Backbone:
């Protein structure tokens, strides 16, 4: 009524400082996976592999990983107490190999299971305008889960071997070995993440079968034909090189 008497227009929301919520403020973005900053990619990849079923199964794997970590430290301490501290890094590398099998095989099997796919928060992400069903996001999510698990199980033994080094040169060598071993585990996680993302994209109904075909079948063929490359064959060779490097000390 005041506006009619004065002939002025009623104040708008903008003039009062109240702006209508935009799609950006509501979190509705039309992003593509390749346009995300790395921080956002890492958050989305972590969310993708943190569903109820996946979290439950990885808690069980974490218990096994903790037992491996404790056994690695205990084994290193035992050989050091027995006067064989010069081979402590070899013992730790053996434990690292077990961590690769634990998370590389069982962890990937869990992440590619139908139950894990059903527990993914994809619906909630779509409501927020975010896309989780991206090969890059999935590869990063799988790689992150597997790499952190392998590092959790393997690094305590390697650090223990570093601590019980009998001399300064061996201490320096084992420091480099610790870094190289961490890169070894990270590269394995990235490779398995790429395998998981590829199999989910190529064979969405049976990604486990696809992963077995890509990882296990070439390895079995390489047993009779060594010239055939395989992921287990390449990383077994890399582990042997690390063990020989440790033995050289």
Residues:
């Amino acid at each position: 009524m005041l506006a009619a008497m004065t002939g002025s227009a009623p104040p708008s929301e903008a003039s009062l400082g109240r702006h209508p919520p935009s799609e950006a403020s509501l979190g509705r973005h039309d992003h593509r996976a390749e346009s995300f900053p790395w921080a956002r990619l890492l958050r989305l990849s972590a969310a993708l592999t943190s569903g109820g079923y996946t979290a439950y199964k990885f808690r069980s794997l974490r218990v096994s990983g903790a037992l491996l970590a404790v056994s690695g430290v205990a084994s290193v301490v035992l050989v050091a107490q027995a006067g064989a501290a010069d081979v402590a890094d070899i013992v730790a590398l053996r434990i690292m190999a077990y961590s690769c099998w634990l998370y590389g095989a069982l962890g990937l099997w869990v992440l590619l299971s139908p139950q894990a796919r059903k527990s993914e928060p994809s619906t909630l992400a779509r409501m927020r305008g975010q896309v989780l069903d991206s090969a890059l996001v999935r590869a990063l999510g799988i790689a992150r889960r597997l790499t952190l698990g392998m590092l959790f199980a393997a690094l305590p033994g390697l650090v223990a071997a570093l601590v019980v080094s009998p001399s300064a040169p061996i201490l320096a060598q084992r420091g480099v070995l610790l870094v190289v071993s961490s890169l070894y585990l990270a590269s394995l996680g990235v490779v398995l993440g790429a395998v998981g993302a590829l199999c989910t994209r190529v064979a969405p109904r049976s990604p486990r079968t696809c992963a077995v075909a890509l990882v296990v079948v070439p390895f079995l063929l390489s047993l009779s034909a060594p010239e055939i490359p395989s992921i287990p064959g390449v990383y077994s060779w890399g582990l042997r090189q690390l063990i020989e490097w440790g033995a050289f000390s």
Notes: Residues 33-248 form one domain. The radius of gyration is 25 Å. The longest helix spans residues 168-202. Confidence is low (pLDDT under 50) at residues 1-10, 12-36.
